[in-house]
From TrEMBL:
Keywords: Amino-acid biosynthesis, Cytoplasm, Diaminopimelate biosynthesis, Lyase, Lysine biosynthesis, Schiff base. GO terms for molecular function: 4-hydroxy-tetrahydrodipicolinate synthase activity. This is 4-hydroxy-tetrahydrodipicolinate synthase. The gene is dapA. The lineage of its organism: Bacteria, Pseudomonadati, Pseudomonadota, Gammaproteobacteria, Methylococcales. The record marks T44, Y107 as: Part of a proton relay during catalysis. The active site is at Y133, K161.
Length: 291
């Protein structure tokens, strides 16, 4: 089971929007050096919605190649078309991803039965470990714990990224799905408490800029060391909030540019962080002792 701090990696870009492979190499080395446990390539934070299929799969391959087997790589392969999700998942397996992360179909607003059948069909079509991803704030679709439980009996559906921020779901999912089913949070603000309650890790935005602190905090929480986990999390509270002051990944890309790790590049319809937010994000970075 992959556990710990799993960074939802940004997709570094040049100012013209082209993918910046040099910065990508730098980011991979940064995360391995700082103790990141695993990386998600081309998830929400990686601007998956603006990459075409070939870019999407080439980026996953590059992350796999640069990591060189040193940490597990999870590929974001979700789509609101089941056939597209199958194709992306097949291609991620072909380029060497260790697992895939599949978001609930966005915009379509499927029923719980539709969600069950969507993920079941993808899992049956591609033999690779698959992690469900529930983020109702982005998709207008909330996959209920009972639906997750039905999917958890499928051998290669191995966990869920639960990004609703509802901490009561940790116990409900654990009771329904058992100890072998991985529970990851996708909500940085509640990630410490999520893991103290029995979660297996976080798929994190904050970890892009503070990877060592997030790794140490999540490790302490999984180990049940509440005092240490909360003390570290206190340093991160500003980042948990201010990295969402505008739509993700706008603030986190700006912060990484401030740290000298990437260039100033983002794709429309997203735009660069507005100047009135600079000091707010800098303040959160100082709280975490990053500046």
């Amino acid at each position: 089971m992959i556990q710990g701090s799993i960074v939802a990696l940004v997709t570094p870009m040049m100012e013209n929007g082209s993918i910046d492979k040099d910065s990508l190499k730098k980011l991979i080395e940064f995360h391995i050096d700082q103790g990141t446990d695993s990386i998600v390539a081309v998830g929400t934070t990686g601007e998956s919605a603006t990459l075409d299929e070939d870019e999407h799969c080439d980026f996953i391959k590059s992350v796999v190649d640069y990591a060189g087997g040193r940490i597990p790589i999870i590929a974001g392969t979700g789509a609101n078309s089941t056939t597209e999700a199958i194709e992306l998942t097949k291609r991620a397996k072909e380029v060497g991803a260790d697992a895939c992360l599949l978001v609930t179909p966005y915009y379509n607003k499927p029923t719980q039965e539709g969600l069950y059948l969507h993920f079941k069909v993808v899992a049956e079509a591609v033999d690779i470990p698959q992690i469900l991803y529930n983020v109702p704030g982005r998709t207008a679709c909330d996959m209920l714990p009972e639906t997750v439980a039905r999917l958890s009996v499928i051998d290669n559906i191995v966990g869920i990224k639960e990004a609703s921020g509802k901490l009561e779901r940790v116990k409900r999912l654990r009771d329904l799905c058992g100890e072998k089913f991985a529970l990851y949070t996708g909500d940085d603000a509640t990630s410490c408490e999520f893991c103290l309650l029995g979660g297996n890790g976080t798929i994190t935005v904050t970890g892009n800029v503070a990877p060592r602190l997030v790794h140490e905090m999540i490790t302490a929480a999984i180990d049940g060391d509440r005092e240490t986990a909360l003390a570290i999390d206190a340093k991160l509270t500003g980042l948990h909030k201010q990295l969402f002051i505008q739509s993700n990944p706008i603030p986190v890309k700006w912060a990484l540019k401030e740290m000298g790790l990437i260039r100033k590049g983002i794709r429309l319809p997203l735009t660069w962080l507005t100047e009135d937010c600079y000091d707010v994000v800098r303040g959160a970075m100082r709280q975490a002792e990053l500046l």
